[in-house]
Amino acid sequence: MTDNIDSQETVNVPRRREIERLAGGLALIGGTLLCLAAGLVSVSVLGRWLFNRPVPADYELVEVAVGVAAFSFLGYTQARNGHIAVDTFTLALPERLTRVIDGLWDLLLAGCLAFFAWGLFTGGLEARQYGTTLIQLPWPIWPVYLTCAVLAALAAIIGLSVAILKIGAGR
Amino acid sequence: MSGFAIAFIGFAAMLFLIAIRMPIALAMLSVGAAGYAYLSGPHALIYYLQTNTYSQFASYTLSVIPLFILMGALAEQSGIAATLFRVAERGFGRFKGGMPMAVIAACTGFGAICGSSVATTATFGRAALPELRRARVDAGLGTGTIAAGGTLGILIPPSVILVIYAITAEQNIAKLFQAALVPGLLAAAFYLIAIAVVVRRKPHLAPPVAVVDVARTHRPFWARPAGFFILAAAIAGWLFGPLGTVGGVLLAIFGLLLVLADFAIVPAAAVAVTVVGGIYGEVFTPTEGAAVGAAVTLLIGLMQRTLSLGALKNALLQTAETSGMIFLILLGAEVFGAFLALTQMPATLAAMIGDSGLPPYVVVCGMLLTYLVLGAVMDELAMILLTLPVFIPIILTLDFGMPTDDVAIWFGILVLIVVGIGLSAPPIGLNVFIINKLATDVPITETYRGVMPFVIADLVRLAIVTMSPGVALALVRLLN
Asked: pLDDT tens for residues B221-253?
């Protein structure tokens, strides 16, 4: 595992600020999507109440919006160290060591995200082959899978950079 | 190896990983995945995880969580908390201990818009702490009050923790919100009493504010007549039928708000009443309620110009960070839960406890004690996600002389109370940490000292709700 990190580090050490900007940009896209979903549901509720005509399949659109938004949030949460961890039992360890440990966990999480990206990518290709659609709407589902795959891959890259930064600073 | 032993090893491995700083979501995810692969093969795991990440996140039930977080973040950024506090200050300021009491009152109101204790604590740390200082409230009492008041964010519905409980235990979110109302208001009342007791013994801790130099917000000329009209319509509508009880009460509250309340809090209060009331009356689903709440809060903020573009950006980023954290931990809990289900440990354990003849109340008290201990050393959200897959089957097999749904709802409220205690009690209380970061000159021991009266009030409330489930269930039965 350490060899891997070394080779990564010699390539180009990413800058903290640029990573945060990328992560923040993705998060804002997801946040906007969430606002749009909230607006859509409000219009649907209003339409149902006033004219007895809700927006058709609104709940499925909300699901897609929230699903995509969730993937766009993951990188930002990791870049902000937002995933909760317990530090009660490691307070005695030197700070440099805990940084390296945290970096390793970030690396593992980035690996998981990369795996998710791969799963969604292959799943998307299969869905395209079989012509799978959303449940109520007749739209194919593969573009959604691929969007999420891209977002998960970007989150993995962000996670990798966060890990390298931490381990690098721990030395 | 028996399923029981495998599950035990899984739990031990996970606790070890958590102890060496692995993020809790990742610990659940990796141990769950490893166990799943061990029990049903790596191919099954890959197939299970391939696109399940998306289907987990893209769930209508789950979407209520980011929407409530968004609503709270928007409310936080548009300065509603400061307005609420100003109004509460005018009401309570002249009493002994009035300033801390105003914090509790304002937190209660904010809790009806915001479903997160972290957000509530941080908001009031910023909005109320300087004011408490100016009024020469004792530092520890001030920070302690805000740490305890912050828990009202989850104790008063809407509540993100309660939604997570509902999803994990497969219970009705609306009913849990109904059940939480009376215990939540009881919490606020007990906190006020706790403050009154403290300042009666040591009046110098929070002197009354002599002159409250805040002017009432101007009430437009139409507000009072409109309020009376709505009130009359509510009573007529309730008496002659077309509105029903929930609708009548909601409309009456709107009317009273326009007639009596300070006009500054009317928009926020209207949002809170619409969202919570609408969910109670099943006018809309919890997800729709959260969406409408977020959209209306955004609209009000933009129209009143209290929400700048920068503040909106902050609200979105805040929502992203918290939602990302919760979504990943829910995914981890799902994978870990799938592994646990494969070992059949929860079902076996539930059967064992059911056969053991232990009195049901002893079992519940044991679980609550476990929560109090766990809550002292780990994060509350992770705590309930780790334990519920095991505890819920047990709770549902015990006989309390109530329908099982009622038991699950009552237990949810008990869990909510212990989570609240865990958030503010020593040695590890998230709310205390947050306030400690904001008030760097107050030693954390002072805050813990200040928070103790509230923890005692919470323990009393826990005992009351444990012994008489009716406190939580009465409103549920009334509304259904």
From this structure: 787 888 888 888 888 877 776 666 777 787 888
Q: Determine which of B18, B47, B321, B329 to mutate to test the interface with A (most A C-beta atoms within 10 Å).
A: B321
Nearest alpha-carbon partner for B464 in B183, B133, B80, B62 = B183
For CA atoms A85, A90, A95, A98, give the dihedral sign: negative
Share above pLDDT 90 across residues of chain A, in percent, rounded to a whole number: 46
A115: nearest CA partner in chain B: B50
CB atoms A38 and B378 under 8 Å: no
Question: What is the distance of C-alpha B42 from the center of its chain?
Answer: 38
Q: What is the pTM of this model?
A: 0.89
B150 in Cβ contact with B117 (< 8 Å): yes
Interface test with A, best of B45, B54, B430 (most A CBs within 10 A): B54
When the pLDDT of each residue in chain B is averaged and rounded to a whole number, the result is 88
* Nearest-angstrom CA–CA distance, B80 and B297: 10
> Is the CB of A73 less than 8 angstroms away from the CB of B313?
no
Q: How far apart are CA A15 and CA B443, in angstroms?
A: 35
pLDDT in tens, B18-54: 888 899 899 999 999 999 999 998 888 888 888 788 8
Q: Are A145 and B54 contacting, i.e. CB atoms less than 8 angstroms apart?
A: yes
pLDDT number for residue B215: 60
Question: Would you call B170 helix, strand, or coil by DSSP?
Answer: coil
Measured between CB atoms, which of B53, B62, B428 is closest to A66? B62
Q: By the 8 A CB rule, do A102 and A96 touch?
A: no
Report residue B4 CA to chain centroid gap.
Answer: 34
Of A74, A87, A123, nearest to B50 by CB-CB distance is A123
Cα–Cα nearest to B72, from B19, B21, B122, B133: B122
Give the ipTM of the model, two decimals please.
0.88
Mutate to test the interface with A, among B21, B52, B318 (most CBs of A within 10 A): B21
Residue B471 CA to its chain's centroid (Å): 18
Q: Which of A66, A70, A102 sits opposite B21 (nearest CB)?
A: A102
Interface of B with A in 264-323 (CB under 8 A): 283-284, 287-288, 290-292, 294-296, 298, 313, 315-317, 319-323
Q: What are phi and psi of A80, to 5 degrees?
A: -90, 10
% helix, strand, coil for chain B, step of 5: 80, 0, 20
| Residues B175-207: tens digit of each pLDDT | 999 999 999 999 999 999 999 999 999 888 887
Instruction: Give B162's contacts (C-beta < 8 A, 6+ positions apart).
Output: B115, B154, B173, B176, B177, B180, B412, B416
The CA distance from B303 to B306, in Å, is: 8
pLDDT in tens, B322-331: 999 999 999 9
The per-residue pLDDT for A72 is 95
Whether A30 and B320 have beta carbons less than 8 Å apart is answered as yes
> How far is residue B154's CA from residue B152's CA, in Å, rounded to a whole number?
5
